[in-house]
Give the backbone structure.
Amino acid sequence: MSDTNILVLAKEPVPGRVKTRLCPYFTPDDAARLAAAALRDTLAVVVRTPALRRVLVLDGRPGDWVPPGVEVLPQSAGSLDERIADAFERMSGPTILIGMDTPQVTSRQLRVRWDSHDAWYGGAHDGGFWALGMREPDPDLVLGVPMSTATTGALQLDRLRSAGLRVGHLPTLRDIDTAECAAYVADQAPHTEFARLHARLVGAERDVG
């Protein structure tokens, strides 16, 4: 058994509330379907990964897309840095947090080791980060970091290093924020439910066109 807790920070895939930047290329309903597929892919990988606890920290209500073996905790209110900090504050022991925007994530990437690292960082192509892990969860290392900017990842990484932590690096991944990003991720991870749904939706768009 792993000595790591895995957190997934996510929103309930409701049309108009998730993946709005995929519109107007996709409809709000289809954007929500893509978000649901990405979330199911992510949770499936988490379930396959050895962990102390597997926890979905959810904004909204859980659905039948939550697999057995995954706990569900309500996401706190506040800004993104506050919500991430609160998620870490609820955990005891080594913990890695990811989002729902990287369905291409693998179990191997989540099997982090702590013998020579105090923290783990996975950067995103847009300047943010897709993974953040701490051997001793400390909410103060996240609070106040400006989120959703081109420098978010660099600032978060600097916060970890300034605290004297030995930081391990995970591969840089692309989030599915825009239609272009969605196409890239689908191409890179054709085995995922997200990619199969993306292919059907894009094919339908072309047929209509």
Observations:
- The beta strands are 5-11, 54-59, 71-74, 95-98, 119-124, 129-134, 167-173.
- The radius of gyration is 17 Å.
- The longest strand covers residues 5-11.
- The chain is about 35% helix and 20% strand.
